[in-house]
């Protein structure tokens, strides 16, 4: 069995295996018929909403010929009647061949895996992990740029941003050259930076995005999410710190690609969408082949 | 590519093509197995609820062997986080082979089509268009009566009723003889009447439904929808103006059929359901073959 | 046509037929591919939430190769606009090959059957019937113990508990020896007990669960549901009256199995899950083959 809980559980070889499997399945994500998972059922359990992630998994499963059952809105389920997560998981594992779980509590996916007789795929557990987002980010870099010799700027909230911590860790396995761009208050925590360096990453820090535009292959910008801040006042000081505009990308190297996990608010001006640098919609598409790869690997080994 | 935005985009020949395609697909709507759209995915994006329209599309897609993904309730999606419609459309177009969109804002479907690399099917945009409802109304008349030499009464709110404006326009292409039956306050706007006449329709107006019962082939009655009125007081003056009863249909010509887009409130007495005139449940069924035809045409030409 | 409304509509022979059909289909519930209901559509109409029952039906249908359409949350549907149940049923029957209905009003399923041209399967109608729960309970006993010569204790709220009334009736057809264990205030109504005896059941009553542990084959314990009590004060007096613990099951006969319709609150201690007596998760799984049997029988005879 093959639970997918955290990027920390994967070696670089295992990551490469997943990315290559995704590449092999990409034509199916684009519409080629498949019955690889015909007769299989995936259950989606979203204890907090994430329409995009849910739809991406659902698309992946259905393109592979499989079926999806969705627990639906929380407030109407047995969970609302006070059922434990352990019981919910045991019941749903009776219906499905794999379970995608999103939960607001850190560690929920790991705990669910202990009670499930079918694979658990973590689709985000609070401030914890969200490995499928990281894998699709890596896949986007592999497909649209290169994971080898990569120079990347990670921009925005590097303190609370779960997406970015997980991605930085994975990129350190590829010895990436990372420039961390954030307001002083939102710098990446020291403990994480130390860990990245230990893995083999080169780390640089700055508060000025414009200074690095000519020296990077990938610009990865994220939304500064109000809901991650313990104190709303702290949020207001830094909201809107960075914005990718037509003006800014004049300084970009020719091969630069711009990524964003979406949804975006005003981090990227709409005018940038039409430039050759934009890859955030491709990135969102790549969620499908990556999740296909995980679904196939999870259910093949059941 | 084949967006379906407004009845105004179709010539009479194109409408006939859709209706004939629907007729050809009708056995599948009744349960005959099909894999015409096997491997295809339809996304349903309902920015305002319309269970009936959504279920009808979902049924059409699944009867054809295809799959459906649903964005689900708005308030839990990225849209709630402030994402633009353009971004939502671009992301969902990465997952699906066609998108059914319902939106409260007039013009939303046309705008969505500009950003989508897959066909957009408009399932209603506010006070704007709802072409699949009009097409199923035409199909019902074709199957249960006749589009040629048609004498029809359109009854109810002819001022705000979007359904009726769109149907009247389409019927004018068939040179229908239309009797407009409404309270004075809810008469069809002059600009629309002028346009209908220009297209070839014969137009008559009255406030008394009973006077026309013997001279029509189709009685099309609609609900007077409170939510379309700018002023609730105006609504109260006209609510319940017309009601089809057993008494009323005694005056009907033998071949009359009664249509209603459903849901009905008290516009048609339940006793009428058992008469030979009732066709509103058949009409709701015909939504399936008509939407099948549109889905097949949209995805075949992708 | 084959509506499934109430256990009272089935003879013991018909029940045995369903249970044997379920046994035959059980491998499909466990993942064996099937296309028995390929091309068929099941509509789920839940006028009150019951995620577990809905998912179980959905799983059953999809494992059999069929498709599901769901009316979704009530408050957003035509029902909210005031449509009658009769109209909703007539419209949905145009889309689907069978309808699963859950409704808060007793008698709703019977009424729906009058208006539907496709089979109605009752998934619970208020204080009325919930035959598929009873059938899965019987199936669990058949698979994990024995329906013949059965000694069973029914424990908890025997006054308001719909599940238990329906199960007791069905067990009386198998001449079961039943021990009714409840607080005085929640005893089974006399009229039901009389009826059970007339059918051939042996009935005993006690308030003390520990006294019967050595003399039963099946312990069936239910949640005391606050929402079934007309008076909350009455509920508080009896909440938590019975609890199955490791201590208690020391007195159990070797072949005892413990059942619970789930979700559980604190009626069964988590430590009991790991014992050989626990069967409540198997019981929840058995909902799938039983519902498969009903779906196949309903749609084969359409």
From TrEMBL, chains A, B, C:
<comment type="subunit">
    <text>Heterooligomer of catalytic and regulatory chains.</text>
</comment>
<feature type="binding site">
    <location>
        <position position="130"/>
    </location>
    <ligand>
        <name>carbamoyl phosphate</name>
    </ligand>
</feature>
<keyword id="KW-0808">Transferase</keyword>
<dbReference type="GO" id="GO:0004070">
    <property type="term" value="F:aspartate carbamoyltransferase activity"/>
</dbReference>
<keyword id="KW-0665">Pyrimidine biosynthesis</keyword>
<comment type="function">
    <text>Catalyzes the condensation of carbamoyl phosphate and aspartate to form carbamoyl aspartate and inorganic phosphate, the committed step in the de novo pyrimidine nucleotide biosynthesis pathway.</text>
</comment>
<feature type="domain" description="Aspartate/ornithine carbamoyltransferase Asp/Orn-binding">
    <location>
        <begin position="149"/>
        <end position="297"/>
    </location>
</feature>
<comment type="similarity">
    <text>Belongs to the aspartate/ornithine carbamoyltransferase superfamily. ATCase family.</text>
</comment>
<dbReference type="InterPro" id="IPR006131">
    <property type="entry name" value="Asp_carbamoyltransf_Asp/Orn-bd"/>
</dbReference>
<dbReference type="InterPro" id="IPR006130">
    <property type="entry name" value="Asp/Orn_carbamoylTrfase"/>
</dbReference>
<feature type="domain" description="Aspartate/ornithine carbamoyltransferase carbamoyl-P binding">
    <location>
        <begin position="3"/>
        <end position="142"/>
    </location>
</feature>
<feature type="binding site">
    <location>
        <position position="162"/>
    </location>
    <ligand>
        <name>L-aspartate</name>
    </ligand>
</feature>
<dbReference type="GO" id="GO:0016597">
    <property type="term" value="F:amino acid binding"/>
</dbReference>
<feature type="binding site">
    <location>
        <position position="263"/>
    </location>
    <ligand>
        <name>carbamoyl phosphate</name>
    </ligand>
</feature>
<feature type="binding site">
    <location>
        <position position="52"/>
    </location>
    <ligand>
        <name>carbamoyl phosphate</name>
    </ligand>
</feature>
<protein>
    <recommendedName>
        <fullName>Aspartate carbamoyltransferase</fullName>
        <ecNumber>2.1.3.2</ecNumber>
    </recommendedName>
</protein>
<dbReference type="GO" id="GO:0005829">
    <property type="term" value="C:cytosol"/>
</dbReference>
<dbReference type="Pfam" id="PF02729">
    <property type="entry name" value="OTCace_N"/>
</dbReference>
<dbReference type="GO" id="GO:0006520">
    <property type="term" value="P:amino acid metabolic process"/>
</dbReference>
<dbReference type="InterPro" id="IPR002082">
    <property type="entry name" value="Asp_carbamoyltransf"/>
</dbReference>
<dbReference type="InterPro" id="IPR006132">
    <property type="entry name" value="Asp/Orn_carbamoyltranf_P-bd"/>
</dbReference>
<dbReference type="GO" id="GO:0006207">
    <property type="term" value="P:'de novo' pyrimidine nucleobase biosynthetic process"/>
</dbReference>
<dbReference type="Pfam" id="PF00185">
    <property type="entry name" value="OTCace"/>
</dbReference>
<dbReference type="GO" id="GO:0044205">
    <property type="term" value="P:'de novo' UMP biosynthetic process"/>
</dbReference>
<dbReference type="InterPro" id="IPR036901">
    <property type="entry name" value="Asp/Orn_carbamoylTrfase_sf"/>
</dbReference>
<feature type="binding site">
    <location>
        <position position="223"/>
    </location>
    <ligand>
        <name>L-aspartate</name>
    </ligand>
</feature>
<feature type="binding site">
    <location>
        <position position="81"/>
    </location>
    <ligand>
        <name>L-aspartate</name>
    </ligand>
</feature>
<feature type="binding site">
    <location>
        <position position="262"/>
    </location>
    <ligand>
        <name>carbamoyl phosphate</name>
    </ligand>
</feature>
<feature type="binding site">
    <location>
        <position position="133"/>
    </location>
    <ligand>
        <name>carbamoyl phosphate</name>
    </ligand>
</feature>
<comment type="pathway">
    <text>Pyrimidine metabolism; UMP biosynthesis via de novo pathway; (S)-dihydroorotate from bicarbonate: step 2/3.</text>
</comment>
<feature type="binding site">
    <location>
        <position position="102"/>
    </location>
    <ligand>
        <name>carbamoyl phosphate</name>
    </ligand>
</feature>
<feature type="binding site">
    <location>
        <position position="53"/>
    </location>
    <ligand>
        <name>carbamoyl phosphate</name>
    </ligand>
</feature>
């Amino acid at each position: 069995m093959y639970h997918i809980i955290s990027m920390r559980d994967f070696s670089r070889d295992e990551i490469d295996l997943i990315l290559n499997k995704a590449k092999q399945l990409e034509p199916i994500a684009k519409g080629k018929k498949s019955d690889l998972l015909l007769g299989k059922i995936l259950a989606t359990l979203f204890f907090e909403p994430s329409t995009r992630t849910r739809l991406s998994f659902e698309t992946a499963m259905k393109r592979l010929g499989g079926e999806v059952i969705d627990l639906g809105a929380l407030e109407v389920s047995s969970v609302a009647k006070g059922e434990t997560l352990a019981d919910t998981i045991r019941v749903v594992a009776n219906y499905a061949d794999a379970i995608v779980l999103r939960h607001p509590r850190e560690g929920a996916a790991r705990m669910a895996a202990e009670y499930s007789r079918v694979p658990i795929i973590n689709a985000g557990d609070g401030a914890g992990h969200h490995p499928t987002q990281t894998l699709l980010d890596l896949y986007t870099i592999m497909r649209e740029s290169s994971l080898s010799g990569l120079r990347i700027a990670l921009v925005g909230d590097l303190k609370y941003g779960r997406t970015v911590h997980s991605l930085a860790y994975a990129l350190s396995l590829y010895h990436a050259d990372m420039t961390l761009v954030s307001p002083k208050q939102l710098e990446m925590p020291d403990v994480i930076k130390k860990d990245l360096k230990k893995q083999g990453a080169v780390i640089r820090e700055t508060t000025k995005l414009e200074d690095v535009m000519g020296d990077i292959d990938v610009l990865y910008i994220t939304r500064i999410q109000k809901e991650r801040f313990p104190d709303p006042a702290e949020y207001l000081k830094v909201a809107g710190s960075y914005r990718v505009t037509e003006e800014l990308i004049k300084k970009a190297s020719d091969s630069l690609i711009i990524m964003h996990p979406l949804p975006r608010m005003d981090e990227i001006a709409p005018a940038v969408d039409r430039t050759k640098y934009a890859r955030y919609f491709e990135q969102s598409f790549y969620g499908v082949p990556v999740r296909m790869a995980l679904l196939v690997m999870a259910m093949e080994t059941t």
